[in-house]
Design brief:
Structural class: mainly alpha
Largest sheet: none
Strand content: under 5%
Number of helices: 9
Distance between the termini: 51 Å
Order of helices and strands: HHHHHHHHH
Number of domains: 2
Shape: globular
Length: 261
């Protein structure tokens, strides 16, 4: 096995292990419970999960997606989070290698995975992730030449400020709250890690995908559907698209604009 394949395999396994921990965060943070103790257990029968039943991806497959003790089905979300985190880690490692950029963006992506699933389940974005994330992203900017602390600081202000203006504007026009403060802090965190240039792309991509899915749900469930659609997952998707494909998409769009002009 070549060194490149070995390193990539290690990155995938490492991501899956971190994904297992992120599952704990997703379950416990909304309930203000410690993510360190007590050890993981079955939510149905309380069976304490042994290490051999907690191997990322593998244990779920070997157990047939069921608890060893009570045989109640385990949510497919657990291996899904592990797989998504493993793939993101692998993609980041292939793209950036063992660099400080990889570490910074790995932390951002891990935070986005947790935020996405918590927002889907509870329609909240925990401050315990986004607020420290702003500080961590800004701290990294002093050591990342492609970012810089000024770009990061403007990203925080532009990210949080832009959504804050939209939220207040929507509320004044409709009298309803259309966007929570969690989304504002989330975009500020993204701006801290990715800089102010990322904000317009992230908001546009999130709005486009969110609109498509929202219209699709209305068609399926009917016009009177009042199902809340959290915006956090779409912002997270927009951020990940920017990391991996942002420059290509922007260049493609600018190329079309020149042709059209």
């Amino acid at each position: 096995m070549s060194p490149t394949v070995t390193y990539n395999l290690f990155a995938f396994i490492y991501g899956a292990v971190i994904g297992s921990f992120l599952n704990v965060c997703i379950c416990r943070l909304p309930e203000n419970r410690s993510v360190v103790s007590p050890p993981s257990s079955c939510p149905h029968c309380g069976y304490r999960i042994r290490w051999y039943d907690n191997i990322p991806l593998v244990s779920y497959a070997l157990l047939g997606g069921k608890c060893r003790s009570c045989r109640v089905s385990i949510s497919f979300r657990y291996p899904l989070v592990e797989l998504v985190t493993a793939l993101l880690t692998l993609m980041l490692f292939i793209r950036f290698g063992p660099t400080l950029t990889f570490l910074a963006l790995f932390i951002l992506c891990a935070a986005l995975v947790v935020i996405t699933f918590i927002d889907i389940d509870h329609q909240i974005i925990p401050d315990v992730i986004s607020l420290p994330g702003i500080v961590i992203g800004f701290a990294f900017s002093f050591f990342l030449p492609w970012l810089g602390w000024k770009d990061s600081l403007i990203g925080v202000l532009a990210g949080g400020g832009s959504l804050l203006v939209v939220a207040y504007g929507y509320q004044m026009l409709t009298g309803k709250e259309g966007m929570g403060g969690g989304d504002v802090k989330l975009l500020a965190m993204m701006g801290a890690f990715l800089g102010w240039r990322s904000i317009l792309f992230i908001v546009f991509a999130a709005s486009l995908v969110g609109s498509i899915i929202g219209v699709g749900l209305m068609l399926v469930r009917g016009r009177d559907s009042k199902l809340p659609i959290p915006f956090g997952p779409f912002l997270a998707l927009g951020s990940i698209l920017y990391i991996f494909y942002g420059s290509r998409i922007i260049d493609w769009y600018l190329g079309l604009s020149r042709l059209g002009g």
